[in-house]
Amino acid sequence: MTEEKGKRYSRETAIEELKADLISELPPNAQVSKVVFEGPFVVLYSLNPTVLMENGDIVKGLAKSLRKRIVIRSDVSVRRAKDEAQARILEIVPDTAEITNTIFDDELGEVIIEAKKPGAVIGRNGATLREIAREISWRPRVVRSPPIQSQLINSIRYTLTAESELRKRALLNIGLRIHRPRVKEDDFIRLTGLGGFSEVGRSCFLLETAESKILIDAGMNVGSREPNQMFPHFNSPEFDIADLDAVIVTHAHLDHSGSIPFLYKWGYRGPVYSNDATLSLMTLLQKDFIEVAAREGKITPYSTGDIKNMILHTITRRFGEVTDLSNDIRLTMTPAGHILGSSIMHMHIGDGKYNLAVMNDFKARRSRNSLLDKANSRFPRLEAIIMESTYGGPRDAMPRRDDAEIQLVKIINQTAKRGGKVLIPTLAVGRAQELMIVLTNAYQKNQMVEVPVYLDSLIAEAAAIHSCHPEYLSQFLQDQIFNEGKNPFLSEIFIRLDKQNEREPLSKGKSAVIMATSGMLTGGTSVEYFRKLAQDSRNSLVFVSYQAEGTLGNRISSGVKEIRSYEDGKAKLLRVNMDIHQIDGFTGHSDRGEIMNFFRELSPKPERVVLVHGQRNKSQSLAQAISKRYHAKIDIPMNLETIRFA
Ligand SMILES: [Zn+2]
């Protein structure tokens, strides 16, 4: 009891001291009324915020000496009334900005200005923005109006605004925890696999130091029917949800993010760190997952309420920004090249004592016109790297991307010529958007016949999210979108499918391409279209991803020609007469050659390599290849094994 009291006393004293130091460094006319820690940020409330906003150097200097991000907000008492503030914004900003929306956030004292031309709201060197801040005493934040409305992004924004009080309370609690003083004398760094060690699926690693516990990904094995293989080993003795400082998410795929709402169902109330693209995409996939499960009469492991809790506790950061996860771990995210928002997690532990990077799903080579740029390979410091080895086997060589593109377009053209339809089962996020770019390009260059490309609603929504976050796309696509005004996701060939027009692509005599989920025909609209199209030999089926053992996709791709299918409760035999193709060159993972090439570019070279996220024999073969060329200690741990780094 006394010890607990003592701890609390020292934590609060340390924070009070930090606040006092801070205020003493600021000019008195800034009139700082309050200093709070909101998550990893230090927030200053001021009665005269323009002094601080206009003297950026003071704040920058302070942020540098404290090594913290400082946010300045106006005190509630000095903010202009919202209707007046809105009118003033419209007066100040030139019409050329084309403002589409302004949203006020009372808790944060922020106004989000949505405009088609954000640059015109910012003004030269930020002059217009500063004028707005000075005039209305709300902190302006500019975002680009999305070219396609994403229902999902709107609903996340609505949640954050409607529940802003809850969110603020959560951030204050998180802030107190992050800024606690260090108390432990001992120091060590260890990593335990709760999932995703020597397997693909349910990735979840626990990183521990004497001071902190961080979960890296909390995935779910969606294909598994056994609950004890579906979730990570949360019953491991090392794992106690009450001790967890943070969850960091490498990317949105469910095998990396699917269990996060489950942690909130269990009572976790700490932060999740990712970027805004990952937050949008993982929310989309988690919601779809529980909706599909409910529709199929299965028990859902968590509810929309748990997803909402996750959203309210998620702190988004951009690539390259440094963030305190706890009092001894700093995180920096850099691009992983796998899907939109996918990140390499670089962690700087104990004032630089040890640096490790987690690369859970990465793509080390990208062609010029692909969705994303390749993974980052340069780090300020690096002692250890934890890396996926999905395609690390000696025979894992992916066909060239260019060849895959030519093959896909050829199949579409041939099928259309004979009056057939092409069904492409695909994952909603990543592969589908990659294909959308390929098809847009081929269509613009007149290489592809003019056929409508239908997208099921999940793929269309994921595409809308991509076009709302263009800053994560490849440089090539950004140039197309911003400089040439060509957004590949807005091409006229794409038609979104919903309840009203779901039968349209099936209409007789018309050729069409249908992209639908799931990618392995394990459920979703792709299975429904497959049943309707399978018997007609004019049609084609194109698999663009790996077909796992036990799935319908796997049986069809291995040549099974008769499928038992259930319609209206009756078993029917379905003859598969359509043409079956498999194209492998669109993967978002690195193959063996790319991984070896990545090692050549990697700088600095780490002394320790941990291979994860792969079949054991593939990881072992990759380990041999790496150790032939580089001097590094290589581990291939099993789930529930622990590795000690220091
Ligand atoms: Zn992935």
What does this structure look like?
The N terminus is likely disordered. Helix 4 packs antiparallel against helix 6 and helix 12 packs antiparallel against helix 16. A hairpin with an 8-residue loop joins strand 7 and strand 8. The protein has 21 helices and 28 strands. By secondary structure, it is an alpha/beta fold. 35% of the residues lie in helices and 22% in strands. The longest helix is centred in the first third of the chain and has 23 residues. The structure holds zinc ion.
| Helical content band | 25-40%
Which ligands does the model contain, each kind named once? Answer: zinc ion
| Quaternary form | single chain
Quickly name the level 1 CATH class of the largest domain.
Alpha Beta
C-alpha termini separation: 32 Å
User: Which structural class do the helices and strands define?
Assistant: alpha/beta
What name goes with the CATH superfamily of the largest domain?
A: Ribonuclease Z/Hydroxyacylglutathione hydrolase-like
Low-confidence stretches: 1-7
Largest sheet: 7 strands, mixed
| Radius of gyration, taken over Cα atoms and rounded to an integer in Å | 26 Å
Number of domains: 4
Q: What does the average pLDDT come to?
A: 91
Strand content: 15-25%
User: What is the count of β-strands?
Assistant: 28
- Large-scale geometry: globular
CATH architecture of the largest domain: 4-Layer Sandwich
Q: Provide a count of the helices.
A: 21
